[in-house]
Structures are given as structure tokens and as C-alpha cells.
Amino acid sequence: MNVIFHIDETAKWPVLLSNVQHFQEWLAAQSDNSTLEILINGEAVTGALSGSDIDLGLLARSVNVVVCANSMHQRNLKQTQLQGGIDVVPSGVVELAQRQHHGFAYIKP
């Protein structure tokens, strides 16, 4: 089961990270190698920056972590400011629609 987790509010980071961890544990118990993705847009993009309290580096090894370019542009942020292992997609809403169209389940804390 492929899943996309969506975050756009800074305050929701702890809940999102907990959700991802629990889902990964369940997948491991099932010996399931599904694809997990975290889509970051809106104000939550600040959590993806280098120096953030949110450490996405280790997580990005097992989960696709992507940031919306539009949200970054609105905040004058550059890709070079992101933590390692994070990719940028042109539009967060398009990424969500495409993933759901391809059968990804949608989870937003």
C-alpha cells in the first residue's frame, strides 16, 4: 500500500513524524515494501530547512521527502537551504493529485 503523508502546518510536525514511524513499523512487521512519501508545503517548509529542529535526513533514506517549489518561492527559500535527501516538486497540489491518481492513500495529520 503506497501512502503520501501531507504536511502544511508547522505545528503538525510531531504528529506527522509519529504517523510515519508507526506506519513504517507496521510495514516492517508485514514485510511490506510499499512506497511512503512526505509532501511538505505551506508554512511547514521551514521544517525541511538545514538547521531545523526537524531532522529529516535519516527519514529521507527510507521515505521520499518532497517540498513544494511554490511554497519555497513564496518564502524566498532556495533548494540549497534544504536538508540532504529532500527533493523539490514544482507544485504540491499537483504532486498530491498525481500520487492519489496512481493509487496512493492520503494521510494528513
Q: Which structural class do the helices and strands define?
A: alpha/beta
Overall pLDDT: 96
**Which strands sit side by side, in order, in the main sheet?**
4-3-2-1-5
**Level of helix content?**
25-40%
Principal-axes geometry comes out as: globular
Through-space gap between termini: 18 Å
How many helices? The count is 3
Low-confidence stretches: none
Largest sheet: 5 strands, parallel
Rg over C-alpha atoms, rounded to the nearest angstrom: 13 Å
Order of helices and strands: EHEEHEHE
Which band does the percent of strand residues land in? Answer: 15-25%
Characteristics:
30% helix, 109 residues, five-stranded parallel beta sheet, 3 helices, single chain, alpha/beta
Can you give a write-up of this model?
The structure is a single chain. The chain has 109 residues and is of the alpha/beta class. It has three helices and five strands, in the order βαββαβαβ. A five-stranded parallel sheet has the order 4-3-2-1-5, sandwiched between helices. The longest helix is centred in the first third of the chain and has 17 residues. The protein starts with a strand and ends with a strand.
Layout of strands and helices, then pairs:
Layout: E1 3-7, H1 13-29, E2 36-40, E3 64-68, H2 69-74, E4 86-89, H3 92-101, E5 105-107
Parallel strand pairs: 1-2, 1-5, 2-3, 3-4
What's the gist of this structure?
The protein has helices spanning 13-29, 69-74, 92-101, and strands at 3-7, 36-40, 64-68, 86-89, 105-107. It is of the alpha/beta class. The model has no long low-confidence stretch (mean pLDDT 96).
